[in-house]
């Protein structure tokens, strides 16, 4: 870990919390119960999840609930069960209380992070992506909070900026999975050279070479055998499992070996 990496990730996380604070502050009345792109979750439930994860990191246990969350169709693993206990535990709490809770826990987390040493940020810990340094976990937190900001915005029809430091930092988590998505899930055959051309707020070109194993590369060793062009906003939601490519064919342009391209875009989801 470098001081620059630490500063960039924490700045992005703090900015993300500030943006979520502003967004949640605008939610009133029945809007809290608007369904989001996440199965079974309303805006209120997403806020409960955000509060719950930061509370867990602060050593706070979920509120007691007698509901067996394992019986919910959208709970598929223990991480999902943990998230659902917070959702159920905070169900029925008024929106004003949810906002206060979010503000209180993020302020507490800021204070705790400010007191951590470099050694603590470098120390390996359990994370949603497996054992990793604590600072990597904070980058995962940027990604998770950023994705849930988009969930709330999409549910309420509230526009927002998806680029900038927050978007770039969150996108690094998606980038780490692109090789797996193209090669393992998308089953791009060996010898394939894929270029993903993203337009929009997170515009960039992503090159993937498949030589037995798919890997993101700075430059392809030859012309792309498949090109996939789409807006970064759609790409993000595909990667997050919020939408399906089959419902957005007109927004995706495939070139070269289009069968491989279709296979890839149909299998871009990597979140659990």
From TrEMBL:
InterPro entries: DinB/YfiT-like, Maleyloyr_isom, MDMPI_C-term_domain, MDMPI_metal-binding. Residues 15-153 form the Mycothiol-dependent maleylpyruvate isomerase metal-binding domain. It holds the Pfam family MDMPI_N. SUPFAM superfamilies: DinB/YfiT-like putative metalloenzymes. GO terms for molecular function: metal ion binding. Residues 168-260 form the MDMPI C-terminal domain. It comes from the Bacteria. This is Mycothiol-dependent maleylpyruvate isomerase metal-binding domain-containing protein. It comes from Rhodococcus oxybenzonivorans. The lineage of its organism: Bacteria, Bacillati, Actinomycetota, Actinomycetes, Mycobacteriales.
